[in-house]
Specification:
Protein name: chitin synthase
Number of strands: 30
EC number: 2.4.1.16
Number of helices: 43
GO molecular function: chitin synthase activity; deaminase activity; metal ion binding
CATH superfamily of the largest domain: Metal-dependent hydrolases
Keywords: Cell membrane, Glycosyltransferase, Hydrolase, Membrane, Metal-binding, Transferase, Transmembrane, Transmembrane helix
CATH class of the largest domain: Alpha Beta
CATH topology of the largest domain: TIM Barrel
InterPro entries: A_deaminase_dom (IPR001365), Ado/ade_deaminase (IPR006330), Chitin_synth (IPR004835), Chitin_synth_N (IPR013616), Metal_Hydrolase (IPR032466), Nucleotide-diphossugar_trans (IPR029044)
């Protein structure tokens, strides 16, 4: 055999002592973070006997199509990977397709696919001979990557079912299991975590005087690192390249399913001595004797096929892998968190020295960058200060009591046997993948309070552990264990993160208080119970203060402004700092501005995504910081006045009692002094006593200025989004690129699969490209601003509301029960639903991205180009009907309608009469049954589940042939609410829709007469400012239906141009269904709303509706009513009359009408009481 190694990382070597390297090393220099870690090339040009390759030269094989079978007495079968032209997660192979031999692989217990694949030669050669050759029986853990396709739930990943893990197969005791959970972090964040973990393992292995680690085998064999990635699709592909570089992952070996059983998780196992630093430098051993080398680390890499959230990742860790490994201590880390030197050892020692310790956490501090430069960012500095103070004040206090309310999932540890049983059972109730199995006890059966509680599921685990019946487990804070983590650096990300934290911690805190009685069933001593009672009282007080903090900050700010700025006897008639005249005025403006910005937070929180209004949030942060700075200056001035006697007088002459009375009097500055010391001074004093004061100098300024912001912005956003129980992540099913495998049976009736056998040379050549990508300098991707067209519509709505004079209308309009009589169901198709249906039905969109689809919703024209001209933009109807293309199945039409009913429920709509047509769909080959049955199901579910009743309106498309419309009506009549009672009851009226240009209503007289004959109502569109619209209205009022006229007119605003039409509408009691925002898009405020007011003053009956809201700036019925309320000058009583109009104009049954009118009276009655 040749002495030259089969392959290397780059087919070149680099002398660690030389300043000149070959070109590849010049591009990717290999060095370690510590100066004592020197490295040698993975390539050994001069081989020695203990570095000889274990693989035969593939060129020497004369039969390129050799076939052989591997027989494995144990639970695994060793072999080579299947070669696939398309790799996992959409990544393609980097080598051409060759012709390979094949092999058979037996399945464990006939069901479990578990295979060993040879790793690249360069990785094998990196392992020090003292490890690789020490135990021949276990050499495959250094030469082969073990892959298991787990086609089961985590709870079924058991030895009985044929699943196993290498440490258990080798009969090794696992003392420490280190788990890293990952979602979509980049390779820099992941590498800094993994390299930090491997350095910590080296700290443990280096111990010389340990009574535990040096007995019963090498220390590294007692430690396992488990990486759990939450889904293939969100995973960063460069991160997978890093894992492939150190040997714990290979491209092209994952299987989508086995015999039709979908793979739930792809499990890889390998023991490596390689690591990649955060600066993309490869770290590898350089001599047999060096103590700076990283020891072998046993890796388990679990790549879940679908994204199913972090709690499910923990279920794989705790219910699958831990049950097999049975570790003593489990450390939880998030990707991006770097454990400090000897931190993991410190956590383990806490458990080793305290046998009743059930859980522990270390100190987490913010990643500040080189020379703490990130402290210049106020958000980072404030979070750094917050973390530090929590580690100085909160965690040690709770640790002394024995119950740390939260062990952060980013850096904590648990004793495995302590959390087994009820703690884990309660913890995993929040796993969505268990919802069907758990039923009402699962996440889908929970109320909104419990769902929010599981946003902070780590708090639930902490409480359940301390309250575990019959045991006396306690929790502790370990100061010596430190972890560095990245924190949000932008306003939008910060607000979104704190929404989860605040809502989750608030709900979990209430949970702990309400279930505190379970502590009595634990095994804690009387002394421990006494301190736990003190802690629960403290937590209750803290919860109450949190609840009232919004008002407290406002009162504190306004009172201090008045004490200092308003001339009075208390400040010797001296207003400060702007003088007696200006100070009260400035303070008044600041206070009104405070309230205005605070009200803005409610609008933003209820109607906008943080990423869509970054500017407004930034302005809010700055304004509240300015107010906080001003109040802080006034507070110190107030306190200085106390001690100098220049402003307030204390009674120093009549003894201690008199002084205390004057100090705590309502006009005294003593209360302000105490507030300042308790709010600010305690941080400084505690930090100095803790011998850790540097954050006071670098970060306190940002925290002190941001305290008001935290309350007024973060808490408002969190509580206004209490209904949002998401983590901001979503599932993905994009695993089609993975191959499936089907088993066959051999002569012994054992299940096996057959796959290609790739030579080692091809494995090595493919690996070289992987290493180049992994070690390439990291290029941070350009951040998308995150602002979508949907955001711009919501911003328009927010701006509209925020600039209205009477901000109190928002809750008033929201509280009104509503009836909507003019909304096109296809006009409620949201971009998100359209995108979803297009992909589900394989409907090609002209828009390559979701953002491009959003942009298409910008409506420039309203009808035809012959009226508006042509600049290449789509017309309203083109955009509208293009959206209809994605509606193909009964379920599609159901989802469209039920989504509208959900939105209607959200804005307090009680009854609706949606327009629909079949012609736009049947001409595409969609069966009329699919359309109408989908709508019929939604009609039933909308009423039963959401409380939104509906009677629908069938529409003729005016720009389609009349005969086609008649046939469409006849085919739909079985679904009508006809007078003979034989119909299914979906629709009870007919109308007109689409382009009315040169299409007068009289053309459809035959259809109207047919509708009347079977007992249906008739309504018709007379759109605003269209050609011959006055004549069309005249036909609708006097001519159609054999002269009886229509029952209702849709739109009809142009009646204001013809007094005779207004008179006829009043005389015949025909109502109009107006959609103000639809007209406001193309008419000025001062032109449009006087027309609406004129109709009202003339006594013409009308109601307010939304028309096609998703194509019209996302303004729904509530936004339309707000416009009328504001711009027409309607009173609240008149707005109530508008709702009555809608009820009376509707064709609802009398019971429904009575219910809505009764609710309306209750709402108006409450408003009258508030006004009085």
């Amino acid at each position: 055999m040749s002495s030259r190694r089969p392959n290397s990382l780059a087919n070149t070597s680099c002398d660690s002592e030389s300043s000149h390297c070959p070109p590849y090393q010049e591009q990717h220099p290999f060095y370690q973070e510590e100066p004592d870690e020197q490295e040698i090339s993975l390539l050994q040009e001069n081989s020695s006997s203990h570095y000889s390759t274990p693989f035969a030269d593939p060129v020497a094989e004369s039969d390129s199509h050799r076939r052989y079978t591997l027989h494995d007495p144990g639970p695994t079968v060793f072999g080579a990977p299947e070669y696939e032209p398309v790799q996992s997660s959409g990544m393609k192979t980097r080598a051409g397709l060759n012709r390979y031999g094949t092999r058979k692989i037996n399945l464990v217990k006939g069901a479990v696919l578990s295979v060993d694949y040879p790793v690249p030669s360069a990785i094998q050669n990196a392992i020090q001979p003292e490890y690789r050759d020490a135990e021949e029986g276990f050499s495959e853990e250094f030469t082969h990557l073990r892959y298991t396709a787990a086609t089961c739930d985590p709870d079924e990943f058991t030895l009985r079912n044929g699943y196993n893990l290498r440490p258990a197969m080798y009969n090794r005791h696992t003392e420490l299991l280190i788990a890293v959970t990952y979602y979509n972090e980049d390779k820099v964040l992941t590498s800094r975590t993994l390299h930090g973990v491997m350095q910590n393992i080296r700290d443990i292995v280096r111990l010389k005087k340990s009574e535990f680690w040096n007995k019963g085998g090498p220390a590294w064999q007692k430690i396992v690192v488990c990486l759990i990635f939450d889904g293939i699709e969100p995973c960063d592909k460069n991160t997978l390249d890093v894992l492939a570089t150190i040997g714990v992952y290979q491209d092209g070996i994952m299987k989508k399913d086995v015999d039709g059983r979908e793979t739930v998780a792809h499990v890889f196992e390998y023991t490596t001595q390689l690591s990649v630093t955060a600066t993309q430098q490869l770290v590898r051993p350089h001599s047999d004797e060096s103590t700076s080398n990283l020891p072998p680390v046993q890796f388990i890499f679990c790549l879940k096929q679908k994204n199913s959230k972090k709690i499910n990742s923990h279920r794989w860790l705790l219910n699958a892998f831990s049950r097999i490994l049975n570790p003593e201590v489990i450390v939880l880390l998030d990707a991006g968190t770097k454990p400090g030197p000897k931190s993991l050892l410190s956590l383990w020692e806490a458990f080793y020295n305290d046998k009743t310790l059930g859980g522990a956490c270390g100190e987490i501090h913010a990643m500040l960058g080189p020379r703490w430069q990130k402290c210049l960012n106020p958000l980072v500095a404030a979070q750094n200060f917050e973390y530090k103070i929590s580690n100085i004040l909160d965690k040690p206090l709770e640790s002394a009591f024995g119950y740390v309310s939260v062990l952060p999932g980013a850096f904590s540890a648990y004793r495995y046997r302590a959390i087994m049983g009820r703690p884990l059972e309660q913890y995993f109730h929040g796993d969505h993948t268990l919802s069907k199995r758990l039923g009402k006890k699962g996440i889908e059966g929970m109320n909104i309070f419990k769902k929010n509680m599981f946003l902070a599921e780590d708090r639930i685990l902490c409480f359940e552990l301390v309250a575990k019946a019959g045991f006396k487990w306690h929790l502790s804070y370990v100061k010596a264990a430190k972890g560095e983590t990245d924190v949000p650096e932008g306003a939008a990300e910060f607000v979104g993160q704190r929404r989860r934290w605040l809502n989750g911690s608030f709900a979990a805190g209430l949970y702990a208080i309400m279930h505190f009685g379970r502590i009595y069933r634990s095994g804690h001593s009387i002394i421990r119970l006494f301190f736990l009672h003190i802690q629960i009282l403290y937590n209750i007080c803290q919860l109450i203060m949190t609840w009232f903090s919004l008002a407290s900050y406002w009162l504190t700010s306004s009172v201090i402004m008045d004490l200092v700025g308003t001339p009075s006897s208390h400040n010797k008639e001296k207003g400060w700092p702007w003088g007696n005249d200006a100070s009260p005025i400035v303070n008044t403006f600041l206070k009104y501005g405070y309230l205005w910005v605070l009200m803005l937070q409610f609008m933003l929180a209820l109607g906008n995504r943080p990423k869509g209004v970054v500017t407004l949030y930034t302005i809010s942060f700055l304004y509240f910081a300015l107010v906080q700075l001003y109040v802080l200056i006034l507070s110190f001035y107030l306190v200085v006045g106390v001690f100098t006697g220049g402003m307030l007088d204390f009674n120093f002459d009549d003894g201690l009692a008199a002084f205390i009375q004057s100090f705590f009097s309502s006009s005294g500055g003593g209360i302000v002094l105490i507030a300042l010391v308790s709010t600010y001074g305690i941080y400084i004093i505690a930090s100095i006593l803790y011998l850790d004061p540097w954050h006071i100098l670098t970060s306190s300024w940002a925290y002190f200025l941001g305290m008001t912001t935290c309350i007024n912005v973060l808490m408002v956003y969190a509580f206004c989004n209490w209904h949002d129980v998401s983590w901001g992540t979503k599932g993905s099913d994009k695993v089609d690129a993975l191959p499936s495998v089907t088993t066959q049976k051999d002569n012994n009736k054992r299940n096996f699969i057959e796959e290609l056998d790739k030579p080692q040379a091809d494995i090595d050549s493919q690996f070289e490209a992987t290493v180049k990508r992994a070690l390439a300098p990291y290029v941070e991707p350009e951040e998308d601003g995150g602002k979508t067209l949907d955001d711009s519509y919501k911003n328009f709505r927010t701006g509209l509301i925020q600039n209205m004079n009477g901000l109190e209308i928002t809750p008033f309009i929201t509280s009104l029960p509503k009836v909507e009589l003019h909304v096109h169901i296809e006009g409620t198709l949201t971009p998100a639903l359209r995108w979803k249906l297009a992909h589900r039905n394989n409907i090609p969109l002209r828009y390559p991205t979701y953002e491009a689809l959003l942009n298409s919703y910008k409506i420039t024209y309203n009808h035809r180009r012959e009226l508006n001209g042509d600049n290449g933009a789509p017309t309203f109807l083109e955009t509208y009907y293009e959206g209809c293309q994605v509606l193909c199945t009964e379920d599609d039409f159901y989802e469209l309608a039920i989504a509208y009913f959900q939105k209607a429920k959200d804005v307090n709509v009680r009854y609706v009469e949606p327009f629909f047509d079949t012609q736009a769909h049947t001409k595409r080959g969609i069966p009329v049954e699919a359309i109408l049955n989908g709508f019929l199901r939604a009609q039933h579910d909308g009423a039963k589940q959401l409380g939104v009743k509906s009677n629908w309106i069938f529409c003729f498309l005016r720009d389609h042939p009349v005969k086609e419309g008649l046939e469409a009506l006849r085919s739909a009549l079985p679904w009508a609410r006809t007078k003979d009672g034989k119909g299914k009851g979906l629709f009870h009226a007919v109308g007109l829709a689409s382009n009315e240009y040169d299409r007068p209503p009289g053309l459809f007289e035959e259809g109207f007469l047919l509708a009347k004959e079977v007992g249906l109502h008739v309504t018709m569109h007379c759109d605003v400012d269209q050609k011959d619209v006055v004549e069309h209205m005249h036909e609708g009022i006097f001519d159609v239906c054999a002269g009886a006229g229509a029952d209702r007119i849709d739109h009809g605003l142009n009646a204001t141009d013809a007094p005779e039409l207004m008179a006829a509408l009043k005389e015949k009691n025909i109502g109009l269904t107006l959609c103000p925002h639809a007209y406001h898009r193309r008419q000025a405020t001062e032109v449009l709303f006087p027309k609406i007011r004129k109709l009202w003053d003339e006594g013409v009956r009308f109601c307010i509706n939304s028309d096609d809201p998703t194509y019209m700036h996302d303004v729904w019925i509530d936004g339309n009513m707000m416009k009328v309320y504001e711009y027409c000058g309607f009173t609240k009583s008149e707005m109530g009359k508008l709702v009555r109009n809608a009820v009376e104009m509707s064709w609802a049954d009398e019971v429904t009408k009575t219910e809505i009118l009764d609710e309306l009276e209750r709402v108006l009655g409450v408003e009258e009481k508030l006004i009085s």
